[in-house]
Amino acid sequence: MMLITTSHRPTRRTRSFGHDLEKVFPNSLYLTRGKKTIQDLLMEAYDRGYERLLIINVWKGNPLKMTFIKVDPEDWGYLGYLYLHGIKLQREIGFRNIPPIREEMPFVVTTAKRVGIDHTAFAQVFAELTGGKFVPRGNKSLQTIADKNNTDVIGVIENYPRGMAVNFYRFDITKERPVGPLILVKIWIMEDGRRWDYKEALGIKPKG
Length: 208
Fold this sequence. Notes:
Elements: E1 2-6, H1 12-22, E2 29-30, H2 38-47, E3 52-59, E4 62-70, E5 77-88, H3 90-93, E6 108-111, H4 117-130, E7 133-134, H5 142-148, E8 153-160, E9 163-170, E10 182-190, E11 195-197, H6 198-202
Parallel strand pairs: 1-2, 1-3, 6-7, 6-8
Antiparallel strand pairs: 3-4, 4-5, 5-10, 8-9, 9-10, 10-11
GO molecular function: rRNA binding
Keywords: Ribosome biogenesis
Domain Brix: 1-196
């Protein structure tokens, strides 16, 4: 699915976040960046058969931005960006030592029930960024969606007071609650011009 790495000189928390993402994106891999350039990473992703490259950028010790890049030697390019309020790691939610999914299965993206059109739009965008599959929620349970799509993992777009949240379910681990990581998103921007900013959505005017 994707190769996951960080900007240069990541913090321990950022590396842990990358490892957590490896465990919820099927058949993906977290790779230590080292001195590799973007071109090196793209070639590594292509050689390993991945369709996406995800780079986690750091600010003040925490993950700030997620950059998604399409892996294609003839048509590679930046797809879009998520700017984050913050994250909660799997261990902070109560899950440790979750194994990665080392087999092909769909990564399904849906929403929580009773959310607005902005959440649905972001669910579609998140599916595009990750190479996943968007499935409208309706009144279906998450387990029903997972069963119909032959998958053990679902990313769910949820409400969050200052933006939106992405949470992850692994039904092979537990059917009761999300395993994380929890990603709190304040802005998303796509290279084709689509964008969303929580301050604009809430009518918050810039200071000054």
